[in-house]
Amino acid sequence: MQLFTLICVLFLLLCISSGSSEAYRHYRQVLSGNQQGVCRYGGRLECCYGWKKNNKGQCEPQCEHGCKHGECVGLNKCKCFPGYTGKTCNQDLNECGLKPRPCEHRCMNTHGSYKCYCLNGYMLMPDGSCANSRTCSLAHCQYGCEEVEGEIRCLCPSAGLQLGQDERTCVDIDECITGKNLCPYNRQCVNTFGSYYCKCQDGYDLKYLNGKYDCQDVDECAAGTHKCSHHAVCVNTRGSYKCRCKSGFRGNGFECSAKPFYQRSWDGDKGSADDFINAIPDSQMRPEILGGRLSNEDIKNAIPETVATPPPRIR
């Protein structure tokens, strides 16, 4: 009896272990080639939870709120591009507040980067440190100096700065106004002190591709951010989109209304079958008439006939 009980217990444990192993394989993530986000569900391979198959047939992670300056690497998980931070990578990273500081003396945060400056009497070095310079101190230069053939000349630490009228302090150059910026056609120049950055035009989004930033067209139709009517078709264009009313509707695409099918003059003129009608309310039209599939019987039934009241009987 005891031997029989022991055999039953061992068999039960074996079944539980086998079931657990099967359950583990049921939800286990696997690698199919070089693809990520592929899970095994029984005997088939599908995209894991939080991943969706794109138009190339590959599983890609889904981030509900998007990644403004980064890329989606998992379910609602963004990997930010250099110089940006935040859950959706929508915040500029203030490198000047990091520890250790990237600059020895003065640090100025810029959009997606930073710049270093030195105090009076020091010269900025390539690593962000500042070297003491007696000659610069005597010349009262704002940011540093150089000695050329025995003559001391003040310097500005950035190409976006130039010496002012006193030849000692540096003033900003507005690259956006002077046309000295190198922003491409799909970016807008934004001036900063000592520099500038290129902001994507409306309809474009900044992406980090092949080791550099570039503005990519936003497909408002695929993203569902368009404002087309429910009775219109969204057509993506470069930097924008267009809305076209569907067949059987008219309007500007943002507002579409059903086309009336027939018009008849009620003041005695003869109507034409090619005219449109506004007199018949939609509630009295059959769906096939509104859809444009007309027949003589449809038109006859769509227009309510006047019911004549018989004269009273004379007794």
Can you walk me through this structure?
The chain has 315 residues and is of the alpha+beta class. A hairpin with a 2-residue loop joins β6 and β7. The strands form 12 sheets. A 3-stranded antiparallel beta sheet has the order 1-2-3, with no helix packed on it. A two-stranded antiparallel sheet has the order 4-5. The protein contains 6 helices and 25 strands. Mean pLDDT is 74; it is low at 16-27 and 262-292. Its main location: secreted.
Give a short synopsis of this structure:
It contains six helices and 25 strands. With 315 residues, the protein is an alpha+beta fold.
Helical residue percent? 10-25%
Give the strand line-up of the largest sheet.
1-2-3
Shape: elongated
The total count of strands amounts to 25
> From the helix content, strand content and strand pairing, which structural class follows?
alpha+beta
Helix count?
6
Q: Which secondary structure elements does this structure contain, and how are they paired or packed?
A:
Elements: H1 2-26, E1 29-32, E2 35-41, E3 44-47, E4 51-53, E5 59-61, E6 70-74, E7 77-80, E8 84-85, E9 91-92, E10 106-110, E11 113-117, E12 122-124, E13 130-132, H2 134-139, E14 145-148, E15 151-154, E16 161-163, E17 170-172, H3 175-178, E18 187-192, E19 195-200, E20 204-209, E21 212-217, H4 220-223, E22 232-237, E23 240-245, E24 249-251, E25 256-258, H5 287-290, H6 296-302
Antiparallel strand pairs: 1-2, 2-3, 4-5, 6-7, 8-9, 10-11, 12-13, 14-15, 16-17, 18-19, 20-21, 22-23, 24-25
Protein name: EGF-like-domain, multiple 6
Domain EGF-like: 55-90, 92-131, 172-210, 217-255
Subcellular location: Secreted, Extracellular space, Extracellular matrix
